[in-house]
Amino acid sequence: MKSDILQRAKGVCDYGPTEKIARDKIIKTMRQVFESFGYNPIETPIIERYELFASKFGIGQESDAMRETFKLKDQGDRDLVLRTEFTVPFSRFVGMNPQFKKPFKRYQMGKVFRDGPIKLGRYREFWQCDVDVVGISDSIIDAELVQLTNEVFEKIGLEVEFRINNRKILNGILQNAGVADKNQETVIITIDKLDKVGLKGVKSELQEKGIKPAVISKILSTISIEGDNKELIRQLKNIIGDNEGLKEVEQTIDYVIDNQNVIFMPSLARGLAYYTGNVFEVYLKDRSKVNSSICAGGRFDSMIGGFLQNGESYPAVGISFGLETIFDAIKLYSKEKEQNSVIDLYFIPLSEEYIKPALKYCKKLRKENIKTDIDYTARKLKKNLEYANSYGVPWVVMLGEDEANKGKLTLRNMNSGEQALLDYESVLAKLKEELVIEDNKKEI
Amino acid sequence: MKSDILQRAKGVCDYGPTEKIARDKIIKTMRQVFESFGYNPIETPIIERYELFASKFGIGQESDAMRETFKLKDQGDRDLVLRTEFTVPFSRFVGMNPQFKKPFKRYQMGKVFRDGPIKLGRYREFWQCDVDVVGISDSIIDAELVQLTNEVFEKIGLEVEFRINNRKILNGILQNAGVADKNQETVIITIDKLDKVGLKGVKSELQEKGIKPAVISKILSTISIEGDNKELIRQLKNIIGDNEGLKEVEQTIDYVIDNQNVIFMPSLARGLAYYTGNVFEVYLKDRSKVNSSICAGGRFDSMIGGFLQNGESYPAVGISFGLETIFDAIKLYSKEKEQNSVIDLYFIPLSEEYIKPALKYCKKLRKENIKTDIDYTARKLKKNLEYANSYGVPWVVMLGEDEANKGKLTLRNMNSGEQALLDYESVLAKLKEELVIEDNKKEI
User: What is the fold of A345-434?
Assistant: First the structure.
């Protein structure tokens, strides 16, 4: 029975305290940056109607999206799915909530689901953290997303590269190369694989798809042009002529303060069919260990309008952070020490009769926002210190006969092993001096 | 098409900014209190194996638990469920992670799911926030949970009543009344409904279940005894004799500092079969508007041992907070003003040429942790002020020709309508004085 029951479902993870504390820190940093740029939180459900996702991702489409969507039914036999991303539910939310004045800027963080193959760093449920704006068609807002993204990774401590391209540029390149309109989407799906399969791989896949050699060679030579952002834009203007997408990329880059970290990459495609303008992908600068994008997004100007069909336009742009990849990257690159516990202080009553007085001290310490755990077992001191150590608790307080007689407490620094007999006020002062203590009055 | 697509699944909710901000505040308060008592965060997946939940809740059992569980399959045809609660996954986690020294104290917050009928305040996905300890059989730790719970509701600003009983007392009462062992579980399920159906309802359901009238009357007279905690314990000792559960309740109440808010209630049952000792339920003191429990839990000493079957014992106790009910209660009882946005400041460039200089100010303000939104549309001032008002943003800064010439900014208090022409440093000083600003250095 044991081995049968004690298993997780395939492709999902547990996170113990050490991992969860690290993940919560990333989430907190993102929340702070998102809010500092004026984005408000919302929450949509995990369960959505099958029809909603099918309307965007189709069935049996070239994309794996619907095949890899978890499907379920309720007791009323309704067709449901577990959300695979936030853009479609966000569009539904905006469509159902016309009361929010535009631009409507929101972020959402939570689990999304995919019933696909498991690879390292690719799970069946994973956290996504999305920021989106609806109501601004101007590329200035795209530049805001670039800056917000750079700010997140600066705070997290990862060096990244922000890549940008535009669907209209890709379409321009394909048109110029002689790809028929109806074939453009399938060619883009192949170009999207450039990073993984290289120019040769793209070439052979395009051949398989029946694209003519001359057309293929024109596509490949165009997406392989080199130079800095300005030079690439200049060259492309020469090749494909006047292009709305080129202007949008130019304007976006222009509005990013100090032009930091933005790289224009004409081959960047992004698989999803719903993108209409700029597309983004963010990679670690050092890709030797983490090769997949850690953040991606783009413009989806027709999705909300498509839902609503009220003749109004709902320009929208957003970016999505994958917590798992960021978490993996931090484990590889961060020098910060892992934290095995949130506890500041472990309180040890040295025998059972000191539990009640210890509890009174704990109550006072907790009121000072010192995270305090206490031993109720009156087990041996050695065992208690081992316990505190195993969770990396930095401070221990002991209360026994000696301390009680003198009206004092023994405070032990678990890192240095030093300890001192102090009155409560001195213990508190020392802890306040040494610990980073959360202030409960602060807002989220 | 429109009406077909723009719908949520049945029984799930969207939370816009106002509601999400309020919910996040509750979650933050709980997190702070849980951590202050020495509980660490963990995260288990939403998808679990069908077998795990079926092993605890059975199939076709009298309880609705498995029938109301969302079931699904992955592409490999594996039987899965969406978790309905955290206790079973926590027990699995502890069983699979023997490396954590006991006591292991953890909290988990997140969505759980039930495919049941929809009532007001009862949805198909809802947040639950659980604290549990494994490794302490002594009731002192149960007292810690009482205090932690009281602390949560004190901070949230709701007046509650903490009810306690014990499975062993119920069993003692039933044994004393002459209920056969095999019938005790079903009788407890009926007693659990006392609050909803009253003594008469319980009586008639027990009759339907074939319990003899003399037995029923003895049960009912015992669970209806009255008095304060001490008096009830004294009376029950007289009726059912020496009882382990009575000692546990007595010890728990004794260890709650100042005995605050704990009410012993011999009729309290809690439906779930896995409880083995103390059971808890928390209600608002004023039940006129919210009648269901807002928090509940108890001891489940045999579950983890049952999974592991290694001969060791894993005493465990926990309590679970339902976010939806607490959120509903706050909406009814809290006097705090709703917050429609997290934004502190809305920056208005008075024409397009001031957008770039405005962006530089925004960057500086955000570095000071002032949550700053900016207008990119250069729309009319009146429209911009309406926008800021609709989200309840408290401060607006304007930058136009006049301000630029003088090297100053116009700061407007959106509540009073007062505005002043100030240099950047004075704007910053004023905002820092007036706003509650989050300190990024603080830990989670």
Answer: Rossmann fold (3.40.50)
The answer, for A392 touching chain B at a CB cutoff of 8 Å, is no
What's the CATH superfamily of A17-333?
A: Bira Bifunctional Protein; Domain 2 (3.30.930.10)
Q: Which of B1, B16, B74 sits opposite A309 (nearest CB)?
A: B1
Cα–Cα distance between A307 and B418 in angstroms, integer? Answer: 42
Which regions in chain B score pLDDT beneath 70? Answer: 1-3, 58-64, 120, 259, 271-272, 438-444
- B22 close to B330: Cβ distance less than 8 angstroms: yes
Q: What is the pTM of this model?
A: 0.93
User: How many whole angstroms separate alpha carbon B235 and alpha carbon B405?
Assistant: 84
Q: Give me the helices (H) in A75-139, please.
A: 87-96
Owner of token pair 């029975």: A1
What is the model's pLDDT at position B271?
67
Q: Is the ipTM of this complex over 0.90?
A: yes
Q: How confident is the model at residue A271 (pLDDT cuts 50, 70, 90)?
A: low
Partner A contacted by B313 (CB < 8 A): no
Separation CA A388–CA A394 (nearest Å): 8
Distance of alpha carbon A371 from alpha carbon B443, whole angstroms = 12
Every domain of chain A and the residues it spans: 17-333, 345-434
Provide CB contacts within 8 A for B341, sequence distance 6+. A40, B17, B21, B391, B392, B393
Cα R_g (chain B), whole angstroms: 28
Residue B436 to residue A442, Cβ atoms within 8 A: yes
